[in-house]
Specification:
Layout (H helix, E strand, L loop, with lengths): L1 E7 L12 H10 L4 E4 L6 H7 L12 E9 L5 E5 L16 H10 L3 E4 L14 H5 L9 E6 L4 H14 L3 E4 L11 E5 L6 H10 L4 E4 L11 H21 L1 H15 L1
Parallel strand pairs: 1-2, 2-3, 5-6, 6-7
Antiparallel strand pairs: 1-8, 3-4, 4-5, 8-9
């Protein structure tokens, strides 16, 4: 089996992460992982830091680092996006697209999207959004569901697993690690080697059988101070709202560029 962490944050690409992509990869490799999917918040900087290394560390020469992103939608929570190899989309580094628009663009480009921690905290989770409450059919826009996330409570993951079964969607598993101690707490294992984004997209689309697992840590589900947790949620909500406005013009420009390129 080939073990991958399919939800990873690096300090190069996520403002709330504290470990670099090389150190992240090294810790996974030590624990028997074959690779990782970098899913920084609205950024490819973590993946690019790996890609642009002049020389990979010798012990990581066979370690696979895939390019993904965790996109902050305007109305549908956090969404994991995987595009085919060689396909670049600067638009995805400008948060604020609506879920339907995002799904349309990604699918037109040959990629797939997944609901990150769908029963997680606050507006980060699709199931807590007004969009879902008014239009539950939007769940069918997703190509896969993250059914285990090491950053949310046990019951949230159980509900996510039930959701995937109801929708008949493939499942993925990831640590969502932002700090070193959470690295290696979750994996998705494949029967065949995953060497590139196209391989991963193929497995998801074909709904190939995967294995998932987790390594429990002492504070894996430790209750956080409610005040601190809410400050984090609403602080990030405020930050995103500002970014949605700031990126408005940039999104419009990138969409027009894509229209000229693909139409």
């Amino acid at each position: 089996m080939y073990k991958f962490d399919l939800h990873c944050h690096t300090k190069e690409g996520s403002i709330d992460a504290h470990i670099g992509v090389v150190d992240y990869a090294r810790l996974l490799k030590i624990q028997g992982y074959s690779g990782m999917l970098v899913t920084d918040h609205d950024s490819y900087k973590g993946y690019n830091a790996w890609k642009n290394l002049e020389k990979k560390p010798k012990e990581l020469e066979d370690f696979v680092v895939l390019k993904g992103i965790e996109y902050d939608t305007r109305n549908g929570g956090h969404v994991l996006v995987i595009l085919p190899d060689g396909v670049d989309c600067p638009l995805l580094e400008k948060q604020g697209l609506g879920l339907r628009k995002l799904a349309h663009i990604v699918h037109e480009m040959g990629g797939v999207i997944g609901a990150a921690h769908p029963f997680g905290y606050g507006y980060f989770a699709i199931m807590n959004t007004r969009l879902f409450r008014k239009n539950p059919d939007v769940l069918y826009l997703f190509d896969f569901i993250e059914t285990f996330n090491a950053g949310v409570r046990v019951y949230s993951n159980l509900l996510a697993k039930q959701l995937a079964a109801i929708l008949r969607k493939p499942e993925t598993c990831g640590s969502d690690a932002h700090v070193a101690e959470k690295i290696g707490t979750a994996y998705t294992a494949f029967k065949h080697p995953i060497t590139c984004n196209n391989d991963l997209i193929h497995v998801i689309r074909e709904r190939e059988k995967v294995r998932m697992g987790a390594r429990r840590t002492p504070n894996m589900y430790k209750n956080r101070n409610v005040i601190i947790k809410n400050l984090g949620i609403y602080g990030y909500w405020t930050y995103n709202k500002l970014q949605f406005v700031i990126n408005s013009l940039g999104r419009t420009i990138e969409i027009r560029k894509m229209h000229l390129r693909y139409v």
